[in-house]
Amino acid sequence: MANLNQDTNNYDAASIKVLEGLEAVRTRPGMYIGSVSTRGLNHLIYEIVDNSVDEHLAGFCTTIKVILEADGSCTVEDNGRGIPIGMHEKGVSAERVVFTTLHAGGKFDNNAYKTSGGLHGVGSSVVNALSERMTVSVGSGGFLYEDKYERGNPVVELENGLLPVAGKTRWTGTRINFLPDPEIFEKTRFREEDIKSRMHETAYLNPELTIEYTDRRQEPAEELVFHEPDGIVGFIRALNKSKEAVTDIVYFKGMSDQITVEAAFQFVNEFHENVLGFCNNIYNAEGGTHLTGFKTVFTQVINNYARQIGVLKEKDTNFTGADIRNGMTAVISIKHPDPRFEGQTKTKLDNQDAAKAVSQVTGDEIVHYFDRNLEVLKTVIGCAEKAAKIRKTEEKTRTNMLVKQKFSFDSNGKLANCTSKDASKCEIFIVEGDSAGGSAKMARDRMYQAILPIRGKILNVEKASIDKVLANAEIKTMINAFGCGFSEGYGNDFDISKLRYDKIIIMADADVDGAHISTLLLTLFYRFMPELIYEGHVYVAMPPLYKVVPKKGSGEGEYLYDDYALAKYRKTHKNDFTLQRYKGLGEMDPEQLWETTLDPRRRYMRQVQIEDAIHASDITELLMGSEVPPRRMFIHDHADDAELDV
Hints:
Layout: H1 2-9, H2 23-27, H3 30-33, H4 38-57, E1 63-68, E2 74-78, H5 94-100, H6 123-129, E3 131-140, E4 143-150, E5 153-154, E6 165-168, E7 173-180, H7 192-205, E8 210-215, E9 222-226, H8 231-239, E10 250-256, E11 259-267, E12 274-279, E13 282-283, H9 289-308, H10 321-324, E14 328-335, H11 352-372, H12 374-403, E15 427-432, H13 434-443, E16 449-454, H14 466-471, H15 473-482, E17 487-488, E18 491-492, E19 503-507, H16 512-528, H17 530-534, E20 538-541, E21 546-550, E22 558-560, H18 563-572, E23 577-581, H19 590-598, E24 605-607, H20 613-624, H21 628-637
Parallel strand pairs: 1-8, 12-14, 15-16, 15-19, 19-20
Antiparallel strand pairs: 1-2, 2-7, 3-4, 3-7, 4-5, 4-6, 8-9, 10-11, 11-14, 12-13, 17-18, 20-24, 21-22, 21-23
């Protein structure tokens, strides 16, 4: 302890560490790409592709190639102007500056790019810093130039500060090949489904752009071409391909204060909304000011029309925004010369002028459209009227079911709550079965850990009406326990600030039934309380599958969490050992459950994250919906990806 105190007290100038160059990125990668999980790994590709898309927006690129190479690396190539290779004022090639210096690039020069998704100018250098190796090839002026890096450090010697000529070529553009660094990332295999979805999405947003995708990690290689000349109209058509449309697709485009606004929407016969926002081709998962502007003016216009045609009387209250957007699928895409995002991963737009521009263009264009298409207007108002009636009915239901309960927020008496009221420190475990729930209640830290046992499998909310969802006892108990309400297309009572627990942890058995229960719970959270997932509050506990105890020698044994760990243990331990297989959490005594699954110092958990909301919604609908053939085909196609419980 003396040494620890000495180190702590010795706080002087020598204690201040300056992270030079790209060292800061490697030390804190999550600050730049969000995480070091597969989500962050895929983000490396998006950063490079976004730069090529910016070149397309500038009018110099028509084709982008994205290749997942057999060796695990990724190649992104475009036919744009090529990264400048001339001498920079720093005394080296401009390309070298771009890939070794944070906040350097053409995005800060208003003459180079009018709009750009690469706001922070850190994309290329961050990818370089987090790659085991990177090769940059530039075709310019009939010559090929090549630069190479290892973990962000250049390995090619410059000639008088400039890149040496590697050959001659007729091609112009930039080609970047990089291999993610296994020292940084948990896994280094790119997730192809997410990448394909992102590339297809980018093609919809840029109707004159072609993206060629190749996956050489499989035999034969998968080759796809994404080219969508119908733009976001085709995007809406694809989003609604399995839904019953009640209106045609409405499209408009306009400009205000140098901000280009493009939007398309359609109403379908479903009771939820799907409004997606993009700024400079970047999907803003948490929305932002552009969506606020669209929603606000759309609500105002429809309410005005509803009063003009007599649907709303003088004594009636206006339709809510959620009423009016019920059944709406919309894509709002803006091009902004100086976007401000919250965070490097650009999940939320923060420009107030974007709200004003979108409001002005939307207000002008939809009034122009509805004045000439009264039947469509009446259909939209009819959807809002129907949604409002259901909302008012459900408000009464919620009042009876959720709000005016005279006892605790646990309606069934199942919840073993924690003592602390500090939500930032509290966590709730949703446990399958009374047996496991009983063990968990005895094992937990009562100060900060709450236990909520559920009986069996909850209702599949993807197939159920809202009244059945709210009537389900298990779901009702969870909504009450969390304290923040729930979200739905025709009534949004969710308030994340009222959440009673920082972590909501699904703790199910490590078998097929446990996986099904976890999936049902995640479907509930995603459809009715998505903010819980987007703001990082949902986790899945990882209880061990095995405990091994050596027959000879000392030691209390070791917990193993999957079959891979067991196989590895068998290879490295030649002596005899006893193997205990946990078929369920109920087989663990409280002490074992604490040390493996509840103890914050030793447990393993997976945080639930959504990288691509569009893809996530499609997969949820496919796997949890009522259509059997597509689900059967998906399971067949992905059977090799499954982790079998043998």
